[in-house]
Amino acid sequence: MAITDTQKVDYLWKKIGYAATKTDTNANKKAPNEAIASPLPLRADKVWKQASSIPATQPGSSSSPLTVYPTSAPTECTADATATTSRTWKTGLTDWIPPEFGSTYLVKVYVHTSGNAGSAAGSGDTLSATGSGNNDEWFFDYQSGVLHFIGTNLPNGISFSGKSVYIAGSRYTGDFGVGSATGAFTFTDNRLQTTSTNEEIIIEPAGTGYVAIDATSGLIVPVGTTAQRPTGQAGLVRFNSTSSALEIYTGSTWSNVSSSVSLDDFTGDGSDTTFSLSQTATSASVLVSINGTVQESTDAYSVSGTTLTFTEAPADGDSIQVRNFFSGDTVDVANLKDADSDTKIQVEESADEDTIRFDAAGVEVATMTSTVATFNKAVNVASYTTTQRNALSPANGWIIYNTTTHKFQGRANGSWVDFH
Known about the structure:
By secondary structure, the protein is mainly β. It has five domains: 5-40, no CATH class; 46-172, no CATH class; 223-256, no CATH class; 260-332, no CATH class; 383-418, no CATH class. The chain contains three helices and 30 strands. The protein has helices at 5-18, 120-123, 386-390, and strands at residues 66-69, 75-76, 78-79, 88-90, 108-113, 125-127, 139-141, 146-148, 163-172, 185-188, 191-194, 223-224, 237-240, 245-249, 254-256, 262-267, 274-282, 286-290, 293-294, 301-310, 319-324, 335-337, 344-346, 356-360, 363-368, 373-375, 383-384, 399-402, 407-412, 415-418. The strands form eight sheets. Strands 1, 2, 5, 6 and 9 form a five-stranded antiparallel beta sheet that branches. It has a five-stranded antiparallel beta sheet with strand order 22-23-24-25-26, with no helix packed on it. A four-stranded antiparallel beta sheet has the order 3-4-8-7, with no helix packed on it. Strand 7 and strand 8 form a beta hairpin. The longest helix has 14 residues, at 5-18. The protein is elongated, with a radius of gyration of 44 Å.
């Protein structure tokens, strides 16, 4: 026995109107009395994620998330060969925007010569959804993109020989899925990208909250050469692959985050007073020695950028060594010490003491203030023969021990003077 239309309507009433399962006839169990929930399925892959971007009035041309098929270029349908001749026509396109978004989205239907979409609206037959009064209404399924002449008859007075049905309207061609709007972002697997050219990606915690990366591995900062540095903004951090250093933009210049020590070796020729360093430095950040003797800053040399300048040219064959401890950057540290902390240099042992202390094996061997340097252990000055001494390029203030004369000697007013 066939299912009656009354039973079918009762099923739809309970399913759509009450989201309930039909378990009995309407006479035996009314819709409000059906107790088993049965909502319509909602597929996440068919949710129009950008539905809020659909304008209330259909635009004249395509614009995300819409693809428009205007009356000047409607899409041509193909007849459904499995249905009665000319009864059903398929666009082959899904997700047409229904008039619930606005009355202008109601599709327009034309019958015209096949393969001639451009003149369908102007020269073809326009069909009304309500028909001509001869039970020849059409129904368009906006989800599947299928037009069906749902009335008893086909359109009155219309011949379909050599003709096609044409549809003008709009389709949703934006993103699908659930979740909040992604704005100007795209997500591909584990990659987050912005679709706006040269725009920042901003993470903004609320109030006093902070950005935390909950991991035990590590964080890779941007890596690039010196030539690839971006336009500087205060706080930018990157790894410079040219200098192999982590650097930060201070607001006015790029500066290395970590300290380093560079060593430059030169040989004097008796005439050159300037030498090029491998790293930017200052007079205060380098330790300069000639033949093992430490030179006095400002009196014997000065440094500007990568240029080391001596007040007098080192002699021919002099061995010059320059140790640059901070690569031109300022590093704030309180202590420089070994693993067990018994050998160290303390910038300040207590707050604002302004005293540098030198410890070795747990013993304080020297201190230095702005006015005096104090040595608590014996001081071993450089030793030279008279011949070696005479080969030096000394500056006033030097002190040596002369192993030829067995005298402590100092350089004063351009001459060597015995201390005893």
